[in-house]
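RECORD TYPE: protein structure
NAME: ETFB lysine methyltransferase
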Amino acid sequence: MTPEIQLHLITPRCSLWSAKGDDAPFTDPFWAFYWPGGQVLSRFVLDRPRLFHNKKVLDVGSGCGASAIASKLSGAHTVCANDTDPVALEAIKMNCELNGVYLDTSSDDVIGSKIGDWDVVFLGDMFYDSDFADLFSQWLPRLSRSGVNIYVGDPGRLPLVNHPLKRNLVSLFRCPLPENCLRENNGMSTGTVWKYTG
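PREDICTED:
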């Protein structure tokens, strides 16, 4: 979906794809996959650079760093890829090098906290859990009141679809997901970028 961005990922061609137990050097390597919500958000960012040019962007739960990289390629002034997994931050640095960009990284748990002076916050595929959805429903209104533009990339995960927070989201972009996403993500076929308006 984003051929402009190169990423180091675990794919079916990689031995780590089927590694089990002691054969797997990482526990829960969420950062090694390009989640569909992140893909649709990255596509949106690359196609609309004027929204992000010269902006300060915080990518929360950055994973492989694709959306953060997309914002840097789109001319964002300052970008921070945030993920609480320190291995994710190393993967993000490798992916930045692959794409010839530099950005900041942080392992701070920022969800629910005051985040400082950011223009934009990304949440790519972060609504995989109802507890997270509840946290975001408390945090996003505070961010929005402080002037932050919040963009959510999501492939239709139930914790978002069924959450009252969705009433405060406006759809900005929808696109079909690639074939590999259909196989890997229980048949979810469409990705959407939402903007928080609450």
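COMMENT: The two ends are 29 Å apart (CA to CA).
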